[in-house]
Amino acid sequence: MPEQGGRRQRNQLTHLLRGLAFIGPNLALFLVFTLGPALFTLALAFFRWDPFGTPVFAGFENFNRLMADASFWYYLGNTLIFMLGLPISIAGSLFLAVVLSQKLRGVLAYRTIFYLPTITNGVALFMLWRVMYNKESGLINSLILPLLQLLGVHGHDGAPITAQGMPDWLADAWTIHGHSIYLAKPALIIMSIWISVGGGNMVLYLAALAGVPPDLYEAAEIDGATRWQRFWDITWPMIAPTTFFIVVIGTIGGLQGGFEMAYLMTHGGPEESTTTIGYYIFSKAFIDFEFGYAAAISFVLFAVIVLVTMLNWRFGTRARDY
Amino acid sequence: MLSMRKPSLETRSELPWLIALIAAVLGGWYLYNRQVLGIYPLDASEHGAFHVITYGSDPNPSRAGQLSKFNQYYRKDSLKVCLVPGGSDGSTLITTSCAGTAPDIVDVYDQEDLRTDIRKGLARPLNEYLKASHIDLEAITWPARLEALRQPNPRWRPGEPPLDRYTYYAVPNNMDVPVVFFNASLYQQVKAEHLRTGQPMPPEPWLNWTWWDYAALARSLERRSDDGRILSFGATAPKIELLAIEIGMSMRGENRARFEHLSAQERHDLHLGDLTWDQCVSIYQPDERSGGGYRPFPNREGLRQALQFCYDLVEVLHGAPSSSDLNQVASSTSYGFEAGFGQFTSGMLAMHTTGRWFLGQIRATCAFDWRLVRMPRWVPLDQWQSWQQRGLAADQRDGEWGEREHPLRGFGLPLGGRMSFISSSSRDPARAFKFLEYLATNQDFNRILLVEDGMGADMHIALDYLAHGDPLFPEEGRNRPVEHELGTLARLYARPQWPYTNRMLGRDQAYLDMDSAFSQPEWRERAFQKGGVRIDYAAASRLFTGTALSSPDVGAALADRLVGKFADGLALGRALDAEPQVQGPSRATLAALLTLGVLIAALGARLWPTRRSDA
Q1: Would you call A61 and B328 a contact, using CB atoms and an 8 Å cutoff?
Q2: Which residue has the higher pLDDT, A34 or B227?
Q3: Domains plus CATH for chain A?
């Protein structure tokens, strides 16, 4: 009937307007502060612009320069090396979550303690680790030195090793077959693992573990499954969507990350060994004022992230959909 | 009884409440900022009674006194200046200038920043105002500073006003010269310890001390606990550029005519090669081969010696903290003048090389006996070694570099400091200029600066002040002997400008990179390889007993590295200052973008059905 049809249409329109009214503010902010700048960045990649003057169209100049920029490729390599900590961090988070989901006395306190690094100010953490990595008086070397002395390790000069002979974790390099291996890289990876292992990933895993139906475990137990079999055949597949989510988010974060620790702890050094793509984008945009070039790097990074995320979706789906 | 309700945000009546809540939060936030925190300025014009000049600068406490003096003087003209803290910060200035809301007057701390501001049209020309006010900056201020403030006017013809030979863009606000602040209390404490244990102690700094005396003193004043913890640092490492120029001055000597007639053997002995008088102290030299480019550090030997000295001071003598040492105190790592101010005022750093404008802060902060000392000068190591071996005291040092014959040989200082310009955003530049006039010519302002800051723009007031003791600060007689300051001022030079718009691409970044370069093990290995050791200090001086300085190879390698960084920066700066040419994609770009695009499209095509089935 036409009258009913008209009323339905009016209702639909009202619903639509009401829905738009709710998402409107969010949509407006998204357009202004996210999509707009993203499109602006994409356009800017084709211009030469320092923020004082008018952008000048330069075609593919920035991209051509990027392809020939040895620093970019080196920093991309650094970024990928830093991401090697991701699987360890995820495994650590899962292990912690499994332990902390047990019925232990004071489990809440443990959960809080492990989550503390995540809610602590990043700057404070980085400065703390900088002091811990100090050559002469840092905690790390203070723990290692007595062990080395106990084992009778000698320094380069043949005398028993002292604090002066210990490695400077944020500055030294070991030369192996003529190649310098900078200690700052593993040092920062270890620190990142420490910071992230008890953080958001652990909380996600705790939530996922709580969602696994207990009757599955009961049934498996009746069937005589061992603890490992229960974990591998029930827990792991049941929390696969969470793992998948963490891997995707962690990969994206890893490709974008590394700026804060490099800025605060090493200034990207020694010998640019801790400069990541994120740090490079910052220095090009806000130190060198090469916004066009920084935009081109951001654009390429964006494309790489999209690609890696799609690869994750493509090849991680089976694990996720157990 | 359970009531089944729709989720609350879908009920019609709650939308206005939500909007009202958001409005209340935002409005409350604004009012809190305005009324409680006072972030948004209140009516500074006092209902239009005053014309307000806004002044972007740092909120240094001494600024308050300077501004209140202006407001006192110009009250009759209904003028008032208000500080905009941080209004001169680079990123803030960019955004406010784009919006046309930058402060009327802006401070700039670096000559390259001023050049950039001029090039981008952020700074207004001042010639008309200078002429109208009869201000001749050439007569008022320091010659070494003028080139930073002005640019040659190619349209000027003889017969036109001489002032128009240049376009002036800024006036000097304060003048800054590097000095060494010395912790005399710490010295006495360490000296007593050394006397108790029978160790030698170098003398306190004196007027014509050298960088080697500085190094010896720095080494003596560095103290560590048994487990390697830093108790006090000796000194900060000098700026490489300053040292390279001083070494260049030392190499070329005092007499230009004599330099021109040096024999081949003499030039060889002085490591001069084919350097000209100017090239001895140049940081960048126009390079005719590259058609308008620049060649960094033509005096490579001077640079090599400067880097060798810094390396030895930091890594061998441990007189200045390495980046690892600075990590112990969670400080920033930089071989700059500003690094270490906190350590000095806390008594942890014995000698702090910094700008004279820290004088007021150090006077107000330090709870120990301190001295203000002139910067050291450069003499060749073998000359210093010879004095040490013969045990010559400070006033007995002889020879070509001796204090009697040539007390200023190898001595020179850059004159830097803050400058102020009228921003393009200023709606009333004529009134704004009144503040610049005050900075450049007002005697009270200039005197305030001398006591609390660096030195004022007015050279004559500064010279007059330094030539007489200050009755307000009688202890200054000890910290600031007259010949000390005037000797310093006689050797001021303009710091060489980075030739391209973007200095960070080259100069600063290249120097910053030396932080990590010094601590690389490859230098350490090379420094002490067999037969490469330069000098055994045990033979030269008891001050460095048992210490050998590193091989000259290290200085050469570090110089190569620094020159390489500079050359890269210069090339990039030149390319970026040139007009861009529209380019098509190169083969590599095309291949990379196509690969990315194809992979994303292919994966997207594979994933799309999966996502739809998921839905």
Answers
A1: no
A2: A34
A3: 2-44 (no CATH), 62-133+168-320 (1.10.3720.10)
